[in-house]
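Re: beginner question about structure tokens

> Can someone show what the tokenized structure looks like for a real chain? I only ever see the sequence side.

Sure, here's an example I had lying around. Input first:
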Amino acid sequence: PGARRLPMLLCGVLGLAAVAVLLARRGEAEAEPLPHMVYVSITGEGPSAKAWYDGAAPTGVPVQAALDTFAKQGYRLGQVSEARAREEGESLVWLLILERGRR
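And the corresponding structure tokens:
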């Protein structure tokens, strides 16, 4: 069981690193155009599910509110990761990649 968690952990760390890079770049200049892609991490299920992304509240944002925000900016769903639990018994985690300017 521990050997299976290592690739999942590595994938999670790489995803967080990508989000950190995007956060750092976005904070460099407010006048920059919106990025081509946005990463949204979602944890939980149903009405208690929360979304985290660059600029989200530290406690997370309701998923529908996050999707509405990005839809108004012209983003569309590009890819959804498989739902995975970080550890047995923990909440499910998804990663959404939202894209703009591709259609």
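Each token stands for a local structural state, so reading them left to right follows the chain. The chain has a mean pLDDT of 77.
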